[in-house]
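Reopening this ticket.

The earlier resolution said the output was attached, but the attachment link was broken on my side. Pasting everything inline this time so it's all in one place.
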Amino acid sequence: MSETRVNVLIVGSGGREHALAAAVARSPRAGRILVAPGNAGTCEVGENIPVEPTDFDGLVKLARDRQIDLTIVGPEAPLCAGIVDRFQKEGLRIFGPTRAAARIEGDKAYAKALMRAADVPTADARVFTRFEDARTYVLTRSEGLVVKASGLAAGKGVVVCDTPAQTVLTLEKFMIERAFGDAADTVIVEERLQGEELSVLALISGRAICLLETAQDHKRLGDGDTGANTGGMGAFSPAPCATPNVLRAVERDVLLPIVDALARESHPYQGVLYAGLMLTPAGPKVLEFNCRFGDPEAQVILPRIRSDFLDLIEAVVDGRLEEADLQWDDGAAVCVVLASRGYPGPVEDGKVIDGLEAARRVPGVQVYHAGTRPLEHRILSKGGRVLAVTGLSETHEEARRRAYEAVGCLRFDGMQFRTDIGNRAL
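Inline output:
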């Protein structure tokens, strides 16, 4: 492998993007690292540039002006809007799926149809564009169901309902009150699956598939998986439920057929594909596909990669993933998200964050910034999820202890977090 320095642009501003920047920075081949727009943590490993992720003209100009060799896209919105298509048209190297391939996340109704066509196991579902039709269907059922906005809703457009009445109220919120705007023009109503949840991410380049280490996410706001659905309140890796047999089934029955289906539709996939799964008594079933690294899954998976992360990303982009050498730390990682008061609803920004230096001094801890901004010599909160605190160790128990020790060092007004992240792994 050539030792030529590679200048990298990372698009996004959250905890996932801080984890991506840190992973790239570990490569001996990393040159300049730019993050657009970044946060108060990414500027510690690279240079923040105030360009928004959906400002494609600005990002193309930035890549040209700063001689960027490779762009890595973090969030789903620019991927679903076609940033990869634009960069490729401009002759710029970029990691991520095209707009057509990213539709697997941006349009859940399309993803359901694709899964049915490819015989990928998933929950039974109905798709609706009219509230009256959805309500009529729900009132024929006796059990609780899951309501999903078909479009992008920042990870919050999924509600697990306990009763038909709650399902109808959720449909009203989505389709009448327009809680998620155009994202809920089309709504999926599907059966509630029972079992253990699992996140499996894989690097994909055409028909080549390279599984990453597994993780489990904690979506609900409160301890014991209670409260509102969020973008993710924590995660741990690896997931003990991901046995070799489970992973073989996921690759054979989920990833291979969906990648082949995309290729048959002339949308070959390039990037990372995230499969959110439920391990049911009948085997793994797909809850959702995402077209990017998960957040906070990235904050527990990326720190465990021992191979050169930049080499891996370039192998995907250049179509030589089969040659990639992927090696892992044998230990465990546990990530605890610190969120603002009011999250996942409206929050107040601008809260001073104390204790960052003390938290970083805890052995085996990485503090990833998610919603932060610098102001003079202080760091302020900016958004719902503020920090992601990852503990690394040989065991889940010690990784969890380290993460929570570091959490105990941190303070900002209204800080909320779960106290049971990683318990499932114990």
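Reporter confirms the inline version is readable. The CA atoms of residues 16 and 105 lie 17 Å apart. The two ends are 40 Å apart (CA to CA).
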